Amino acid sequence: MAIRVGALPFTIVSHVLAIAAAVLVLVWCIHFRGGLAWEAINKSLIFNLHPVLMLIGFIIIGGEAIISYKALPFSKEVNKQIHLILHAIALILGIVGIYTAFKYHNESNIANLYSLHSWVGIGVICLYGIQWIFGFAVFFYPGGSAGVKAESLPWHVLFGLFVYILALATAILGFLEKLTFLESSHLAKYGPEAFLVNFTALVTILFGTFVVLTAVSPARVEDDFSYSSI
Hints:
The protein is an all-alpha fold. Helices cover 75% and strands 0% of the residues. The chain contains 8 helices and no strands. InterPro entries: CYB561/CYBRD1-like, Cyt_b561/ferric_Rdtase_TM. It is found in: Membrane. Its cofactor is heme b.
């Protein structure tokens, strides 16, 4: 007899890992890196907004948007609206997070868009925006016919998960890039900060893994036009 694991256990683990990742990135940027600021003489404080906004705003809220159909006990329509709103918040915070990186580079006379992390990051935010606009138009307003929705849903889910996995990969590249810069500036390779950054990246990977597992696992109640119908 096949054993089917429902979405609930994966959802619970996802929430726990989301909290852990948020706490870790805040400890890193506030305790080890000196804090957060929109305007500052120490331009590194401006950059610190970037990992916080991208991880908490883009990765975590974006992940919560993906699993909202299976994590929330509301009706299909309510869950769809929450899904749409959470993705919009993630997209906005992601755009602001990318802007802070440009702001830091421009005010510090550092070149922009020279690394693989930045190239992939720009691509991810563009794909994320396209995915959101498509979902809004087809599943929310003006909305497609039942046939269009049914045909679009598998591709919407598949492309959404692809973009999210790509976002996770971009985040890991960002952690690696920043830690490499810090270590080249004499940060201890086996010190507490290096350990924290690597551990934050691992927790981020685990969070993304459980988000994907939640999205593809069977739901308790099957809904039309949602992740739970997959």
